[in-house]
């Protein structure tokens, strides 16, 4: 019997943490789905691509991006910026609020090939005032009823709420914006993603407000109170939050990580649930962020295993998004989203905002991206 398909990727090393699979194998796509290849069956495909000496991963999921290019000064164009880096699904984290989410949907989501989800900023105008001024954070401005209407209208795209809790943003409001956001999330039945860099007060108080399923983002940030205690270990309250079900995302950005914090946390067994970029217009292709493959390379060189790095960018965020088994895996029946990489030995130096330098000797180099069974990026050398 001959198994027919449209695209065969042959000879690569499959890394699919959702199935605990790491081995050389072929991937067959028919239409927009992955097709099972029975042992010893012949395969006939319209297009065959050789992936020898390459890693073949599920299409990457960047859980923390800023994509509102038409409504903010920081937004990137998703297809042109992310597809060449192997990212087939992205989550915008609070670029839009209740006053401008309709515009975000019409101009960004509707006009993109890749899958886009979003968290709604609790502040009504989202990040539309950046970089000229910070968003207004007065909890009295938050509009739960408008948010409820949007969650009903965009029930497939909206995943939760976003709030930023830096001292320079909240000022005298302290943790009141986070408390109000969690209260609104309780009424909406959704999760909260909270920006934690330079928090107003101690991490213990902030993390105590989070519920199971909420996301503590910028987990390895080094400004103000952070997840490491004075003994160089993970704070007990942070461990308890993870036990409770709080998720921890890197969302590195240009200034939301410190190698000293990351190294101490990883040494103490506290690895991230999700690895993401917090990419904006100014950090796209810039050495400290560049894109998700570089962030993945950073954590690989910090000592996290290949399988765990890939999981944190595929099956883990897929579960959070609610698309487990459909994206973030190469299992039969999943959408045909594939990212092909070479893991090259390239001496690369990354410096954090505190001046510490990490030398990377293994770097993910994108070779090809497949979205819904169609090749949407391919390197000239591949």
UniProtKB/TrEMBL annotation:
Transmembrane segments: none
Species: Pelosinus propionicus DSM 13327
InterPro entries named among the record's database cross-references: Amidohydro-rel, Deacetylase_Atu3266-like, Metal-dep_hydrolase_composite, Metal_Hydrolase
Any Pfam family the entry gives: Amidohydro_1
Entries under PANTHER family matching the protein: DIHYDROOROTASE-RELATED (PTHR42717), IMIDAZOLONEPROPIONASE AND RELATED AMIDOHYDROLASES (PTHR42717:SF1)
This protein's name: Predicted amidohydrolase
Gene Ontology molecular-function annotations: deacetylase activity; hydrolase activity, acting on carbon-nitrogen (but not peptide) bonds
Keywords, comma-separated and alphabetical: Hydrolase
Ranges for domain Amidohydrolase-related: 55-376
NCBIfam families per record: PRK12394.1
